[in-house]
């Protein structure tokens, strides 16, 4: 379990501060994460990695010469927001374009893609290769749907070395994609980690058993078995990976980097005992191990688990892998030290408050009250949301929503007190939510609030139809952004009925409070359908079955919020 | 807990094999541990480190250019034997003398000192600096009695860099002693590790509490308190260390390397949160942090604990600390890669069997039976001995005695079947015991058996007086070697009454079986006195009191063995 913190809500931020204090030779802090504290050559492609925090040395520990130029560091197990990623990317940019690479998770894809769009809009070239090395997380036919785990390291390293060697953005993209195609991982676990302040681990496996193919945040595994011997585990890992050799590779004589990664509390000595057998099995298969890695490269706090990665080299990949690198947590070979950067921290800009009229400022006060209602609702249900999410996901939905709603309220209040109209108050709230909550739901709430904000305007009082249209804009933003449809068991399952019922009711002449109440009921009913899946998923997982679909507690939290707002609208 | 192994008895050996397989660029295996696989310049001082296994990256992970030339790797938490250390030292020697440095523990001191004597006897210069950084383990007045914990790294690094820079043996010794004087550590823990195959952790601390000043093998702490916040822990660690600034150092303006070391399952993110506050406290005191280290440098399997080390630099120490280094687990700066060594593994020599006569071969058969009795006795009491040791020490006495006695029997049988006389059979058994058991008790049993062997000879039948004289020789070897006296609550408490009563009885004309029986009774009574202390120590420890003295289950196991032999002697 995690044992040391001050306030769990401050953990990620204080962790980054301590990390930077200990590693000023390598990194400096910028809004959203860290970039190198050394100077990079003009025109060098900037490799930007990132993801949720809690996986050290991923991701900040991998910033330095020969590896990443910057890391967007999200909250614990939550994607950094698009704004954070954008901030890191702009600070890292050397004029040669930005290359994004990160483990493939829905929230990260959503936020990195949004940041990529923004960079391109600003005329900065940007390309992406997501890491999809975990062979247990989807079939080979759907390789693009796989998660990124410890194989992050090979893709990051190859991209970083290529940038350092002067490859242009297209060439970095090409070789990183090849590295991802040549990287396959498979993992097992005994227990999940316990997040700071959480009462229990994200998951447990029955005594004497081991989960197979588990994700690094406690995502469901594909099987469960009795705890094997060290040799037995080596045989399991190697046989699974040799069942899926990359296309065009001949096993006999292949040169392969084996990476035996510890997730946190499975320790070095045990891994060396396992590696002893792995080395023999690789030799038996005619494989030549190159530069074996046994250690902690991508952790999950104190999770007791390990994964084996095989990185199938070709001549170019091996040359890039062998290049010198010097970062806080990963060093190798002789790096010619670069000069220290004299850049000062890039501060987030505070935009001016647009003009507003009295009518809109009255609406803005109501928006402020609504934001307070959202905060109160989430605070009252935070534990319940966390529990729901620990069945389907990584258990952070409650604290993520709490972080986002509190940030939204604070930003909304600040704007309202500065005289902003309704649109500005709500847009600021939405941006703050996305920025502070991170993850998928943070980004989506940012989209929803910004959609509604556009309909409210900073002058006049919006009609019920305008509000309904704003909600529709937000919802269509969510579906196009998140690429989920009704029936996928996500937040969208509640959003779509809500907006459909709301629009119909308003069109048939209902008042906003009345229409909102009907729409909230529809959202609640839809969320209940989704939530009803959760106990079933929990059981399936306990029995070691593969995922039966992903039910997102986001539908439930959306229904809670719109229902609470219905009560407030009714009352006023 | 440790979760992966094949046979726990093979764990350390298989761990070393896996470690070497993963790190052939750095190390090659020799009997007793590892040495660099790269060539060192002729005449360079060879820095040899070592200790029990279970502390990775200490000690094998620290062998490579700029750091150690070799590491003697003992069994889990057990000192390597003198023979293992000697083997590593001779393989590491470059003709410039050998420098030993290791954390100060009784077993390690005993075995490294014996190896040092042997090296000097063979004309190889050898000097030693033991690391004594743990300020909680003895008062400043008795600094030489302190344990070595994570501060090992600073002393090893300075010695390794000095050797690499061409310092001669005296100069390496001087600067390493200075580094040790300038290195102070203080640690805390939440739980101890669980050794491979062990049913429970070495220690636990009550829910919500933290042990202060605990050793890395679970040695008793000096206090216990409620779990502090991360900031509170930082304040505790820094304040204790600033209470004991090395002589001649002015705090304001001092340049200090802070090392925040994780013991295994307290993870990086938590340590960064703690380090954030440490950095501020050091700055408040006017201290300039140089090259902060936050990570795992000396672990104890999955122990949940952390320690802070402050290394107070002077100009020479800082220059040596900054020197390039390249090892499996510790790398920094640009090392000019040395050529790979073409040396082949140094094999242990098998000596010829000396001539014997029929009478001595008859005694040798009785010695073989006696060794079998020892094995049977230890096997029957292995759990009991482990439990006793887990109160006073690190819980490995049972398995250590088992490993040693089995190795002694195997070596004795091999010699006896090859026609050896009594002295050779017993001496081979003693050497095997010391070599395979490691630790303090292994070394001492080697001394006892070799002492008796000298009295038996390989010809004729020894008299009772000769046997008694042999026992006396062995016992005086133990007391001079181990530096313990009667009353120190060690094995010596049983040894001395045993030999005194035996000699007196034989001198007054008793038969060997009769005299042995009386002596065994005296040893049993004395061991019972020592053992009676154990429950008291357990209670004291649970209440967080400082050590009330060290009761060694070695007295108990000695009494068990001589009592079992008394029965056999009586019967024949």
From TrEMBL, chains A, B:
The DhaL domain, residue ranges: 365-567
* GO molecular function annotation: ATP binding; glycerone kinase activity
Q: Does RNA-binding appear among the keywords?
A: no
Query: Which superkingdom?
Result: Bacteria
Q: SUPFAM superfamilies recorded for this chain? A: DAK1/DegV-like (SSF82549), DhaL-like (SSF101473)
Q: Which residues form a coiled coil?
A: none
Provide the DhaK domain boundaries.
7-330
What Gene Ontology terms describe where this protein resides (cellular component)? cytosol
Q: Which UniProt keywords apply?
A: ATP-binding, Kinase, Nucleotide-binding, Transferase
Q: Name one GO biological process term.
A: glycerol catabolic process
PANTHER family the record matches:
TRIOKINASE/FMN CYCLASE, TRIOKINASE_FMN CYCLASE
- Which NCBIfam families does the UniProt record give? PRK14479.1 (NF011049)
Query: What is the name attached to this protein's record?
Result: Dihydroxyacetone kinase family protein
């Amino acid at each position: 379990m995690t044992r040391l913190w001050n306030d769990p809500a401050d953990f990620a931020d204080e962790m980054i501060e301590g990390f930077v204090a200990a590693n000023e030779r390598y990194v400096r802090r910028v809004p959203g994460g860290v970039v190198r504290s050394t100077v990079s050559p003009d025109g060098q492609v900037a490799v930007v990695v990132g993801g949720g925090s809690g996986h050290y040395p991923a991701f900040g520990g991998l910033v330095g010469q020969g590896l990443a130029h910057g890391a967007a560091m999200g909250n614990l197990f939550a994607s950094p927001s698009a704004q954070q990623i954008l901030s890191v990317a702009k600070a890292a940019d050397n004029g040669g374009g930005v290359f994004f690479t990160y483990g493939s998770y829905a929230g990260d894809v959503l936020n990195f893609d949004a940041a990529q769009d923004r960079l391109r809009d600003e005329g900065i070239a940007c390309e992406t290769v997501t890491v999809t090395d975990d062979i247990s997380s989807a079939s080979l036919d759907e390789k693009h749907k796989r998660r990124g785990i410890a194989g992050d390291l090979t893709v990051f390293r190859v991209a970083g070395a290529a940038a350092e060697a002067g490859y242009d953005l297209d060439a970095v993209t090409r070789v990183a994609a090849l590295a991802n195609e040549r990287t396959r991982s498979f993992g097992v676990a005994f227990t999940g980690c316990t997040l700071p302040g959480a009462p229990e681990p994200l998951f447990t496996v029955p005594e004497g058993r081991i989960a197979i193919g588990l994700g690094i945040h406690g995502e469901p595994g594909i099987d469960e078995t009795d705890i094997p011997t060290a040799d037995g585990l080596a045989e399991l890992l190697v046989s699974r990976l040799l069942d899926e050799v990359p296309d065009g590779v001949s096993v006999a004589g292949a040169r392969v980097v084996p990476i035996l990664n510890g997730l946190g509390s499975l320790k070095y000595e045990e891994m060396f005992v396992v590696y002893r057998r792995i080395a023999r099995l690789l030799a038996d298969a005619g494989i030549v191990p190159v530069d074996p890695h046994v250690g902690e490269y991508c952790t999950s706090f104190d999770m007791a688990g390990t994964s084996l990665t095989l990185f199938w080299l070709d001549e170019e990949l091996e040359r890039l892998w062998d290049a010198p690198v010097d970062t806080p947590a990963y060093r190798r070979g002789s790096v010619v030290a670069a000069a220290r950067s004299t850049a000062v921290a890039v501060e987030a800009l505070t935009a001016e408050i647009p003009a507003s009229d009295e009518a809109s400022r009255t609406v803005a006060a109501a928006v402020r009250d609504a934001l307070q209602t959202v905060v109160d609702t989430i605070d009252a249900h935070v534990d319940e949301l966390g529990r729901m999410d620990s069945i389907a996901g990584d258990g952070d939905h409650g604290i993520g929503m709490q972080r986002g709603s509190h940030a939204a309220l604070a930003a909304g209040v600040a704007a309202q007190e500065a005289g902003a109209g309704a649109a500005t108050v709500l847009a600021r709230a939405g941006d703050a939510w996305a920025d502070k909550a991170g993850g998928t739901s943070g980004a989506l709430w940012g989209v929803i609030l910004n959609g509604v904000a556009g309909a409210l305007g900073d002058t006049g009082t919006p009609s019920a139809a305008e509000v309904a249209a704003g909600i529709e804009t937000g919802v269509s933003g969510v579906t196009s952004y998140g690429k989920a449809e009704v029936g996928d068991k996500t937040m969208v399952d509640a959003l779509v009925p809500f907006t459909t019922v709301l629009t119909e009711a308003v069109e048939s002449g209902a008042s906003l409070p009345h229409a909102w109440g009907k729409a909230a009921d529809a959202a609640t009913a839809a969320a209940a359908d989704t939530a009803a899946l959760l106990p079933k998923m929990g059981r399936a997982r306990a029995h070691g079955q593969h995922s039966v679909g992903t039910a997102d507690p986001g539908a439930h939290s959306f229904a809670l919020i719109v229902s609470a707002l219905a009560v407030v609208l009714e009352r006023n």
